[in-house]
Amino acid sequence: MTGAYQREDLSIDQQLALSTAARRLREDFTGVFGTETIERFLHSSYEQFATKAAVANFLPLLAERFARQRLHALARVEGRSDSRPIVLFLCVHNAGRSQMALGFFAHLAGEHAVAWSGGSEFAVEINPAAVAVMAERGIDISSEFPKPWTEEIVRAADVVVTMGCGDACPVFPGKRYLDWEIDDPNGKSLDQVRPIRDEIEHRVRALLGDLGVPVPGPASAASASPPRG
């Protein structure tokens, strides 16, 4: 294996964790992809996070989650999955705007559509302010993690929504693109991030309506207010 790490350089625990991850992925994609493809995606995903992860023990889990997403994307590209609409939200760090959009989309769409997110220069962790303001709406994005995008993920998406990544955003001919001009929440207070969150929710609801996905009504004024005390 070439790149940022060699498999033999991994600790015993990391090797065992990756072996377990590979087994779970093989079980999930039985009859869809072979062992070689699954392990290639798992280890290339590991390599993408290896230079940024703050806690090395989490690397196998991040790699497994990202590899699973990439394999689902590849299955879609190759016509081996269902036809639910897929939306990809892209920003610079994949730590604020795109994560909030992903959170709203998944919460509102349920099983009717699929959403992914990524960043051109993905960060180490999710913006805590974004996590906090989404929690005020009853949506937990604390378990999400910044990630890059890959070719198969972009190719699998029906709609690509860009938010501030400019020329770094991938462009594929024939793909539907939407550019949302939304402020970056990085470095902003909770009071400053709440209007960004609300704008994202409004746009996500409109997009779901455009895709023909049924969504529940907007939150009441009481439930939308930040907690007191």
From TrEMBL:
<feature type="domain" description="Phosphotyrosine protein phosphatase I">
    <location>
        <begin position="85"/>
        <end position="210"/>
    </location>
</feature>
<dbReference type="InterPro" id="IPR048716">
    <property type="entry name" value="Phosphatase-like_N"/>
</dbReference>
<dbReference type="InterPro" id="IPR023485">
    <property type="entry name" value="Ptyr_pPase"/>
</dbReference>
<dbReference type="Pfam" id="PF21234">
    <property type="entry name" value="Phosphatase-like_N"/>
</dbReference>
<protein>
    <submittedName>
        <fullName>Arsenate reductase ArsC</fullName>
    </submittedName>
</protein>
<dbReference type="GO" id="GO:0046685">
    <property type="term" value="P:response to arsenic-containing substance"/>
</dbReference>
<keyword id="KW-0059">Arsenical resistance</keyword>
<dbReference type="InterPro" id="IPR036196">
    <property type="entry name" value="Ptyr_pPase_sf"/>
</dbReference>
<dbReference type="Pfam" id="PF01451">
    <property type="entry name" value="LMWPc"/>
</dbReference>
